[in-house]
Amino acid sequence: MTAQMAQTVSESNAVANPTEPEPKAATISGGHLVAKALKAEGIDVIFTLCGGHIIDIYDGCVDEGIAVVDVRHEQVAAHAADGYARMTGKPGCAVVTAGPGTTDAVTGVANAFRAESPMLLIGGQGALNQHKMGSLQDLPHVDMMTPITKFAATVPHTARVADMVSMAFRECYNGAPGPSFLEIPRDILDNSVPVDSATVPEAGRYRGSTKSIGDPAAVEALADLLARAEKPVVLLGTQVWTSRGSDAAIEFVRKNSIPAFMNGSARGTLPPGDPHHFHLSRRYGFNNADLILIVGTPFDFRMGYGRRLPKGATVVQIDMDYRTVGKNRDIDLGLVGDPGAILAAVTQASSGRVQKAGDRKAWFNELRAEEDAAYQKRLPKQLSDANPIHPLRLAHEINEFLTEDSIYIGDGGDIVTFSGGVVQPKSPGHWMDPGPLGTIGVGIPFVMAAKYARPDKEVVALFGDGAFSLTGWDFETLVRFKLPFVGVVGNNSSMNQIRYGQEAKYGHDRGRIGNTLGDVKYDEFAKMLGGYGEEVRDPKDIGPAMQRARESGLPSLINVWVDPDAYAPGTMNQTMYK
């Protein structure tokens, strides 16, 4: 054998019988794919309560730098994800285990659904190879979640995990925003697949802009209506803030010389004292306007299903959801799209043809006179030194306490109804309430979300004592994560909004059935959990107590004993049931 032949045989043997194994392909688990998809969406925190089905997601979040805030009840996790979305403009995310973990979160998802808040709930599930065998905590989660989400699905394979997370986020923004739900079986999360086989959408490349102005002809038509109107008004609703259209709304109101009312999360779009800001004269304004523009607010129970708007006025509705426009009441013009983008387009179209501010001076003066009369009528109760404390005095003290940087959160029935007429945030995005589902118990999780998302902001929360009781144990979570806030409990030892209706319907003797609570010292509860607490029985002590809570740097509860026989006008009118 020649030397050349020997070299050829040697090379051939080296190929056929390699001495070193081929390198293994890199793999990734389902939980880590979840974390990568969350990171691509810009999620920096998940709210969760642990369970064996979901722990690989935690491991992925650690690697991706996503914070894990663990709470004491899954309802809190879902509410916090909702609140985080409202506060940041990014979707929130809650992660819960299967079975009771997911069912505990249903209320939070339902609240986000009615409030049009984008969030993703990820729920665990038994392994696919145990499907229909009766595995631990197995329930038909997708079937339960479908009616209260914009998208609900099971992830069928580990390689699809990140892809389906991005799909769920995309569906959150289909029309008006809302929640999505993904069920991920345990073996799908725990299994690993080659990295090359996994679909991992790139950040910013799996959904498009939602800033549509709809039909340009409708924009021109609204500009014409504004130019001709003598007594226009606009109601700015929650979608103005959801779309981050506050600046466009402010410019629209001022350049088009329109009196503005605000509700929901749009409160604070115009600060108190702005000449275009009106608050207490809404019914008068609607009854006397010739053009009413409703922006981002459905004709639901809060609007009397549209029946509170006079038949003679021209009514225009702007909404992100086509199905909402013209629902429950006929309209003269409907515009579907992003409220901020539409208002900006109308302002541009109105340039040069809108009436000057002076042309509507009489209309502004008329509304301002009505506004001032309503304020003066209520003022004696706001300044009342009565004991027990009148709820309007409590609301007045809170309003005086707020700064430019104070985010206000209302959680309750009658006590928060009182505050709605008095407390006025001073900046856009500084008001949070449950929304149209009327869920009580959102306060502590909303505080958690707001303070986590905006640590630079002060958070002030007003609770009814019944509302606080539902999720109050997560006050400890705020202490544990060092999330200070100023909390006030308006304590009347009652579910007073319901109590009023019972007494009106069944008489005084049966007015206390099923709605009376114990006299709980919530200030002591706060101290027990490591926070700051004070009790207040004299109205002049409310402000100083809140100031001490602010200075404590701790989560706090000021327990204010309020008059149980004082009812808010909305409660006495039972408007929520009409």
Automatic annotation (TrEMBL):
Residues 219-345 form the Thiamine pyrophosphate enzyme central domain. GO terms for biological process: isoleucine biosynthetic process; L-valine biosynthetic process. Residues 1-16 have a biased composition (Polar residues). Pfam families: TPP_enzyme_C, TPP_enzyme_M, TPP_enzyme_N. Its EC number is 2.2.1.6. Residues 29-138 form the Thiamine pyrophosphate enzyme N-terminal TPP-binding domain. Its cofactor is thiamine diphosphate; Mg(2+). The keyword Metal-binding applies. InterPro entries: DHS-like_NAD/FAD-binding_dom, THDP-binding, Thiamin_PyroP_enz_cen_dom, Thiamin_PyroP_enz_TPP-bd_dom, TPP-bd_CS, TPP_enz, TPP_enzyme_TPP-bd. Residues 418-560 form the Thiamine pyrophosphate enzyme TPP-binding domain. One of its GO terms (molecular function) is thiamine pyrophosphate binding. GO terms for cellular component: acetolactate synthase complex. Residues 1-24 are annotated as: Disordered. SUPFAM superfamilies: DHS-like NAD/FAD-binding domain, Thiamin diphosphate-binding fold (THDP-binding). The keyword Transport does not apply. Keywords: Metal-binding, Thiamine pyrophosphate, Transferase. Belongs to the TPP enzyme family. This is Acetolactate synthase-1/2/3 large subunit.
